[in-house]
Amino acid sequence: MSQPKQSPTLLLAPGSWHTPASLIYLQTALQKAGYPAQTIAHPTNGADPPTKTLTDDTTNLRHTLSHLIEKEGKDVVLIAHSYGGLVISNAAEGFGKKDRGKQGLQGGIVLMVYMTAFLVPKGKSLFEVLGEYRPANMVLEGSYCHATSAKESFYHDLSPEMLAEAEAQLTHTCIGAYTESVNYEPWRDIPCAYIFCEEDRALGVPVQEMLVEMMRGSAPFPVLTGTLRASHSPFYSMPVETAEVIRYFVREVEGV
């Protein structure tokens, strides 16, 4: 008798300034839906002195992926918010399920989910791509980068209680997260999906749509999309609905 198919492990990556605690409501919703779900922390968030870079975040995530995929043979879905999109893109190289299968290897990344997240072309940094359009709420102080106006930029649809919780968990990040280039475009090799947030004031819908079209221009797979009537932080304001969109993506990729 064949064994029942195991659900993939869902690995959540926060954005800049956010710790894994920010994703607890989404993580819980996914776990209640029957998926193993865990979060990672980016070394750039809260580093003091602020010397960590995108490379450190990438290495950290690749260590976790190596354990889940190479040691345990698991299928993995990477889910990233905002800046986390750069990290999962950079870290995914060599871990795609299809390419590993060709080598007779078990496990791999079956899906990349970008939750109102940044993507940049290979060889470019986020600051290079943003140029003069760098968000006004990104305030630099030497190598520190702080987020200001969090309510207006990230959380305008939260209750006062949830807003206080979200703001209390914010930290600084390091400029090196934004000045190093991304070295891999996973949408060329791995199925990808994007969650649009219609009320996002940090990463507007036209930019979100442009990023999806960039993927579609070179992706051999359909790029799945879902839409939420949410701010930049649906993991706080709509965790159950966000989890349902992710479940839809996973079912589509797995053919369930």
TrEMBL record:
The keyword ATP-binding does not apply. InterPro entries: AB_hydrolase_1, AB_hydrolase_fold, Sec-Metab_Biosynth_Hydrolase. GO terms for molecular function: hydrolase activity. The keyword Hydrolase applies. It comes from the Eukaryota. Keywords: Hydrolase. Residues 10-244 form the AB hydrolase-1 domain. This is Alpha/beta hydrolase fold-1. It comes from Aspergillus caelatus. The lineage of its organism: Eukaryota, Fungi, Dikarya, Ascomycota, Pezizomycotina.
